[in-house]
Design goal:
Elements lengths: L1 H17 L2 E8 L5 H11 L5 H14 L16 H6 L6 E6 L4 E6 L7 H8 L4 E7 L6 H12 L4 E7 L8 H14 L7 E6 L23 H7 L12 E3 L2 E6 L2 E10 L2 E2 L3 E5 L4 E9 L2 E3 L1 E2 L4 E6 L10 E3 L6 E12 L11 E5 L2 E14 L6 E2 L9 E14 L6 H4 E5 L6 E10 L11 H8 L7 H8 L5 E5 L6 H14 L4 E5 H5 L10 H20 L3 E5 L5 H11 L4 E7 L2 H7 L1 H8 L21 E4 L6 H11 L7
Parallel strand pairs: 1-3, 1-4, 4-5, 5-6, 24-26, 24-27, 25-26, 27-28
Antiparallel strand pairs: 2-3, 7-9, 7-16, 8-9, 9-15, 10-14, 11-12, 11-16, 12-13, 12-15, 17-21, 17-23, 18-19, 18-22, 19-20, 19-21, 22-23
Helix pairs in contact: 12-18, 14-15, 16-17
Length: about 650
């Protein structure tokens, strides 16, 4: 008897494991009943434990919004702010299972300011339930959610016309809403749209057929969700396998691990590697249960090959007669996810499949008003905004259009400074060179003829997130100016700044090699440095300069060449005794006459009259910190 019981449990677990999974999302306007619908599904399908039911009844009396009825939305609205306001703010995920299928439901917020939250919940969904209040019909939010659903390529949509109890279960009202919605989606690529009239609060057509709407001949919500076929939505034609990891546990095994993004791969198939273009055959396929003859999405497998080919993370395995596009230029729809607005001239990181590289925005073709679906010309995208963009990556990506293959058509944009997710994108298609917005136009050819740059200083500064500036550090030998300059370069580099450091000995070894230390040659030496700084600053680069530059008039000339607004003078205020202590041999030679034109010995060092910062030897530990704070205060680096 005990053996039979164990067998029965094993069979049950095996059967449960084989049930397919449906990922779905709910979306709708404020108070359309998204959370209530999901709560009702869980309640009526007997998928709640007793302690959950007790807590639900208690919470409904204390903080519910359903009057005398149980507030099923409290099962999903877990945040305190959600319960207080009776709205959904963040995405809430709920898992449950019936005898026929397993479900993961994403309850997404309906407010426009939470568009990014809805996109997050919709990114993995097979089906979308869009709730419409029967009293209000198809409204702006309904259109916005439909647009996002279409944008993300969700093929199955259920329009749940809720609160039918508040319109006396009117068939005419239902038909009117159905007609309005069908008219709105004309031209959209949503192949499967279904309509179900429900009352989430009362339970009509949620789990059981409603007796109050005999005119509705379709299935109730749960029955529909249990039986809808979504397996065919996957792309089984285009084999795409992005290598995630090269598995080498021993000398006898070299496998390439990853997830089958699309298509089917068989043992013995001929495959091609992108980008190398090498071809070989599949020797074996290792899955979770051991070796298998074939694999399909979304299985995680390890593939061994007949030939030793150089393959690394990010490479793509495909069939030779069906390759992914291999391009650096492409168009995509972007959903901006970051609190910080788009910076068009900054280089971001793009994460695509298992590839990460740098990317730039060449042109924002238009921004879509998610409420009206109108298209507007715009320079940048802000939080929750959606637009069509042309992008260029540093190295080629292997992709398909998102509508054809979501696994290779989706990507994430990452901010290089904060490492936040800046945007998510869906690739439309490649862009030919002739259509690139960065191609040289007739107007730009005229600029080139006149010697004008096609990239202006403001664009460069936005790209580097800094202002082109010269940080001129003056002080006698041994004052610590080189120590500050080199330490400052290291710290700014670690913070993401783009800098060039120049000091006396480095420049004199090349640019000023023929000059000595006489006053005239020293002036010429610094004049050359000033012109180099001017060029660097025009390119948006911060120049860190460590030069004694003892003469006030020469320093003023340098400032004039660089530009008064870009020249920032820092004085290392160190006494002669401090300098001699740091470089005793140098000063001994100068005092013996072995070195001529040495500031502080036989040449006067004139202290600056108006330095932006004076750095004393008593605060040596704070030199770098003080300069960094100054740069931030003056909006030199970083830009805000």
């Amino acid at each position: 008897m005990e053996q039979n019981t164990n067998l029965s449990i094993t069979e049950f677990l095996d059967q449960d494991e084989k049930k397919d999974l449906l990922r779905l999302l709910t979306a709708g306007s404020v108070d359309d009943g998204k959370s209530t619908l999901i709560g009702r599904l869980l309640f009526d399908s007997k998928r709640l434990y007793e302690d959950q039911l007790s807590a639900l009844e208690r919470d409904s009396k204390r903080e519910g919004h359903a009057g005398e009825d149980i507030d099923y939305a409290l099962l999903l609205d877990g945040l305190k702010a959600e319960r207080e306001q009776g709205i959904t703010i963040d995405v809430a995920y709920r898992y449950f299972s019936t005898n026929k299928r397993k479900f993961i439901i994403a309850d997404t917020p309906g407010h426009e300011q939470y568009t990014r939250n809805m996109v997050t919940g919709a990114s993995t969904a097979n089906l979308a339930i869009l709730l419409v209040d029967a009293r209000h019909g198809v409204i702006t939010q309904t259109k916005r959610h439909t647009f996002i659903t279409n944008l993300l390529g969700i093929r199955h949509v259920v329009v749940a016309i809720n609160k039918m109890d508040l319109v006396d279960y009117s068939e005419d009202r239902y038909n009117e809403i159905v007609q309005d919605y069908k008219q709105f989606i004309t031209g959209m690529e949503i192949p499967d749209v279904n309509f179900i009239p429900i009352s989430a609060l009362k339970g009509d057509n949620v789990v059981d057929q409603s007796e109050k709407m005999p005119w509705y001949k379709g299935r109730p919500m749960l029955d529909f969700l249990e039986t809808i076929h979504v397996d065919s939505d996957r792309n089984f034609e285009d084999f795409r396998f992005a290598v995630q990891y090269v598995n080498r546990p021993s000398l006898d095994y070299r496998g390439f691990a990853g997830t089958v993004g699309s298509g089917v791969i068989h043992k013995g198939d001929t495959i091609k590697v992108q980008p190398s273009g090498k071809t070989t055959q599949v020797s074996s396929i290792l899955g979770a249960q051991g070796e298998q003859d074939y694999a399909f999405p979304p299985q995680s497998i390890s593939i061994t090959l007949a030939d030793e080919i150089d393959i690394s993370r990010g490479d793509m395995l495909v069939h030779p007669d069906n390759m992914a596009r291999q391009e650096r230029h492409f168009e995509a729809m972007l959903v901006w996810m970051d609190e910080q607005e788009m910076k068009p001239h900054r280089q971001y990181y793009i994460k695509h499949a298992n590839n990460t590289t740098k990317v730039r925005f060449d042109k924002l073709r238009y921004e879509v008003d998610v409420n009206t679906l109108d298209k507007h010309e715009k320079e940048i995208l802000k939080l929750n905004e959606i637009g069509r963009t042309v992008l260029t990556t540093n190295k080629p990506l292997f992709f398909d259009p998102y509508k054809k293959n979501a696994s290779t058509g989706a990507f994430v944009i990452i901010d290089p400074v904060t490492h936040n997710t800046a945007a998510v994108g869906m690739i439309i298609d490649k862009v030919s060179d002739k259509d690139m917005p960065s191609r040289i136009t007739d107007m730009e050819r005229k600029k080139i003829f006149r010697g004008e740059a096609l990239v202006n200083t403001n664009e460069r500064e936005m790209f580097y997130n800094q202002r082109g500036t010269t940080l001129w550090i003056t002080g006698m030998h041994g004052s610590g100016k080189n120590e500050l300059a080199y330490g400052l370069e290291r710290q700014l580099f670690d913070m993401g700044a783009t800098t060039v450091l120049m000091d006396g000995s480095t420049v004199r070894s090349g640019l000023s090699r023929e000059l000595d230390h006489s006053p005239a040659d020293r002036a010429e030496h610094l004049r050359r440095v000033a012109h180099v700084c001017h060029i660097l600053n025009e390119q948006g680069i911060i120049a860190i300069c460590s030069f004694i530059s003892p003469d006030e008039d020469i320093r003023n000339q340098v400032a004039e060449i660089v530009g008064e607004d870009r020249f920032h003078l820092f004085h290392m205020d160190a006494g002669l005794d401090f300098c001699k202590q740091n470089k005793p041999e140098l000063f001994e030679k100068a005092e013996k006459g072995e070195i001529e034109h040495m500031p502080g010995v036989d040449v006067e060092y004139e202290k600056p009259e108006n330095p932006v910062l004076t750095l004393s030897t008593d605060e040596k530990d704070k030199w770098q910190e003080n300069v960094i704070n100054y740069l931030a205060q003056k909006q030199i680096f970083p830009l805000e």
